[in-house]
Design goal:
Helix content is about 50%, strand content about 15%. A four-stranded mixed β-sheet has the order 1-2-3-4. The protein is globular and about 50 Å long.
């Protein structure tokens, strides 16, 4: 997870490198360990397909530079009205261990036609939790940022000398 400061640095980096005519406005730049996702609004007169075609070369150029610098893939998206459309984004496999009762939840979603597979059902569950606990997750992320800030301000334990025992032994 990246800090709020790192997130803002990414946003500034993309805002400075994207040509002014790519997005009408930059909505968000988010990142995790594998991917950076850049989302902006497009002019009301332009479709998502037209945007993708018009900006492809510019986005590729910026993505190549970002991927080399940040060692993460870059995904792009647009927001039109209240709907966000992502393209060129990753679906990363995640290994997890589930007990039988948890697997039964996934299997029920598959059997009920809500999901095509256990992996799809797990992704559905994650999206559902994210949507229904958005405020709580935002607070949790903020507190994690604070923990990272406090750690960064702490003593440098790697470079400090071994602690010494100030007590004298009886033989001295």
């Amino acid at each position: 997870m990246i800090t709020a400061e790192q997130s803002e640095q990414l946003r500034v980096w993309f805002a400075e490198r994207l040509p002014v005519d790519v997005y009408e406005s930059l909505v968000s730049v988010t990142a995790d360990r594998e991917e950076i996702t850049v989302v902006g609004t497009v002019p009301a007169t332009e479709s998502v397909k037209e945007f993708r075609e018009r900006t492809r070369e510019q986005r590729i150029e910026v993505a190549r530079e970002a991927e080399e610098l940040y060692r993460r893939k870059v995904a792009w998206g647009v927001r039109v009205g209240g709907e966000t459309t992502l393209f060129t984004h990753l679906a990363v496999p995640v290994m997890t261990r589930l007990r039988q009762s948890e697997r039964q939840v996934l299997d029920t979603l598959v059997a009920g036609g809500v999901a095509r597979s256990r992996a799809d059902a797990l992704a559905w569950c994650v999206r559902l939790v994210g949507r229904n606990t958005d405020t709580w997750l935002a607070e949790l992320r903020d507190s994690l940022d604070k923990v990272q800030q406090v750690r960064a301000q702490g003593p440098d334990v790697a470079g400090s000398p071994e602690p010494t025992d100030s007590r004298k032994s009886e033989s001295e």
